[in-house]
Amino acid sequence: MEFRAESECDHKPVWVGRVALAGCDSCQRIEWFSNAGPIDPAEAMAALFGSYDLVGTMDALGAPTPEVLVYRPPNGRKRRNLDAVPKHVWLRAGPHLWMSHDGEVLLLAPTQALLFENLTRGA
Ligand SMILES: [Zn+2]
Predict the structure, then answer these.
(1) How far is the CA of 8 from the centre of ligand 1 (A)?
(2) Is residue 42 within 8 Å of residue 49, measured between CB atoms?
(3) 102 CA distance to ligand 1 centroid (A)?
(4) 66 near 122, Cβ under 8 Å?
(5) In angstroms, what is the span from residue 27 Cα to ligand 1's centroid?
């Protein structure tokens, strides 16, 4: 059996504009940084994916929540922001938010009802 200590992880930040992130599938989380120091995960997510369009929800097997939100890049722009994050794994992006992607669409799984409502408002 392979044992992987946390210290063996290579959390190498990837910069996207003024925000950097290190997504790690061993730790199942995303660490956020910015050129101005610490950054709130919600603010960082907004910087990267705030312009994405909510296209619906779907039931998702294996996701942290039974229902997840599906987002698409606007007209294919900013799709490359997804490339900064490992594909096909669920990572904790913030205290109440998990994310995953397949290189085309962004999936968000808010574990808090209020956050779910905020994210789906106006959709
Ligand atoms: Zn790690």
Answers:
(1) 8
(2) no
(3) 20
(4) no
(5) 4
Instruction: Name the one residue in this structure whose structure tokens are 């009802």.
Output: 113
Distance 79 CA to ligand 1 centre (A): 24
CA nearest to 29, candidates 11, 7, 47, 46: 11
Q: From the CB of residue 90, how many other CB atoms can be counted at a distance below 10 Å?
A: 19
Average pLDDT over residues 36-63: 93
- Assess whether pLDDT exceeds 90 at residue 123: no
Q: Three-state SS for 40?
A: coil
**pLDDT of 67-122, one tens digit each?**
999 999 998 788 999 999 999 999 999 999 999 999 999 999 999 988 888 888 75
Report residue 113 as tokens. 């009802």
